[in-house]
Amino acid sequence: MQRSTHGWFRNPVLPGSHPDPSICRVGDDYYLVTSTFEYFPGLPLHHSKDLVHWRLLGHVLDRPGQLDLDRVRASGGLYAPTIRHHDGVFYVVCTLVDGGRASGNFVVTAIDPAGKWSDPVWLPQAEGFDPSLLFDDDGTAWYCAAKQLDEAGHTAVWVQRFDTEQLALVGEQTTIWEGALRGARWSEAPHLYRIGDWYYLITAEAGTSMEHAVVVARSAEITGPYVGCERNPVLTARHLGPDAAIVATGHADLVETQNGEWWAVLLGVRDGERGLLGRETFLVPLTWDAGWPVFCPGIGQVRLAERRPMLDDVAWPTQPRCDSFDDAELAPDWMFVRTPREPWWSLSDRPGWLRLRARPEAMTDVANPSFVCRRLSARDFAAFTALEFAPSSDDETAGLAVVHSPDFQVRLEILGGDRRLARVVRRVGGVDEIVATAPVSTGLVRLGVECHGADAEFRLNDGEGWNLVARCDVGGLSYRDAGGFFGVVIGVFASSNGKSGSGVADFDWFEFSALPALSSDAASTAAYPYSTKPSKELS
Questions:
Q1: What are φ and ψ of residue 417, in 5° steps?
Q2: In the CATH hierarchy, which fold is given to the domain comprising 2-313?
Q3: At CA 329, angle to CA 325 and CA 333, rounded to 5?
């Protein structure tokens, strides 16, 4: 450990789609969870010592029996978790939307956050969404959430006693807040804090897009009445316009360091609404003035470069950019779409390779396709993989995919059968467009994509050097155009596309690298000078 000397860090602290952050401190350790919607495993749990450097410990919901995401729509599933610690126990409360067997609000617990979390305990009395917990100084616990009042999106925040022994709500429900402004919509993500003599409510309003904002109210009693701050909203980017560097800021959670500093984690969207990364986790300083929180003091907005907390730097080991699939289990940053119900992937059938079975589930289905993916974590990036594909029919495909949802994706895929073609398929709004095709030989083929902003170049190498398959606009997968609550992911897939099949796709390695942004001179040219190559070139 050593004290930071340069005094600044780079936002976001969790790049890539990490929306709805919630944080708690236990001693000098910080823990943070974020939403995952239709992706499995659910609710990544990150750990930090300095609030700037974070490592992925695992996931709160990592067993199929804990999390039923069958047939959950894109941007359904797990919404807005909150993590808290009390008396040696970690608690996470969350909402499951449109679950296959159960939906609603639940709580899970763990003694060791990096260990096994409990199965969900459902809270049938807990209406609404975006739950939170407060453990008060007198030993009582309180559950807080939002509920929708009408179809126009007017909402209310309510509280109720929470029994930590039975993990159940008790007593009467009390509404404490209906918005900072008359007619306010979507007062959501409420968090309650006991700070000094006051109970503070931090909540988000106006939806999760351009009008997103943080507001605050306080009360001398947990059940109210709550009085809003005259400065509300206390943080927003709505006044900066759609082309600001960071937009849609909101959904904040507060933490006090062991040194008495206050900080907040919150979500925001970089590159205006045009980016592929979705909503990311940012860290901002917070001070107090006249009993009210001041976010980003002296600046009033989230910045890409921010001063560091007064904590010793603890930087975790850098993760390798290339996964050679040599371990017995997939690395924790890999994900699936919806809950996997059968072992359609293997790291042991062919040691040193990730094997995917071609199944009828297609990449365009609301299902659990044979797709292993990870978040995009950089606006400008390159990704490569090496594939050996043994299809059993003409219907089977395998390859590399950049995916927002079943209706918005771009795939570089190898076709099965005698055709032996590679093609780039761009799907926007549920409509496929074959951008280009190229012949490809049998045997090992390397696939790659290099992307700068919305401009991507898909290439392959089947032993004769890297060749361009297609230049393609991937801007249709952006937060602005495709909508939804989660950002873009990238990964490898195999499918028999609605037909029965027995083919397998073997991937030897997968590499993802952040790239420097192109210069303005390069960006002004008609054809970008794509030149990135994978670090792991095979002979």
A1: 80, -165
A2: Tachylectin-2; Chain A (2.115.10)
A3: 80
Contact 433, 407 (CB under 8 A): no
**19 vs 487: CA distance, rounded Å:** 9
pTM for the model: 0.95
Q: Cα Rg for the chain, rounded, in angstroms? A: 24
Residue where the block lists tokens 């040194």: 259
Residue 343: exposed, middle, or buried by beta-carbon count in 10 A (0-12, 13-18, 19+)? exposed
Terminal alpha carbon distance of the chain: 42
Give the tokens for residue 433: 């467009």
Active-site residue (options: 20, 38, 50, 205): 20
**For the segment 327-350, what is each residue's pLDDT rounded down to a tens digit?**
999 999 999 999 999 999 999 999
Among this protein's residues, is 205 annotated catalytic? no
Catalytic choice (50, 68, 130, 188): 188
**Contact present, 481 and 473 (Cβ < 8 Å):** no
- Annotated active-site residue 137? The verdict is no
Label the pairing between strands 445-452 and 380-390: antiparallel
Residues contacting residue 519 through CB under 8 Å, at least 6 positions apart: none
Task: Say if domain 322-523 classifies as CATH 2.60.120.200.
Answer: yes
Could you write out the DSSP letters of every residue in 424-489? EEEEETTEEEEEEEEE--SS-EEEEEEEETTEEEEEEESSS--EEEEEEE-GGGSHHHH-SSS--E
d(Cα 153, Cα 185) in Å, to the nearest integer?
Answer: 5
Query: Residue 73 and residue 405: Cα distance in Å, rounded?
Result: 9
Q: Hey, is 508 helix, strand or coil?
A: strand
**Domain boundaries in the chain?**
2-313, 322-523
pLDDT digits (tens, 9 = 90+) for 167-184: 999 999 999 999 888 778
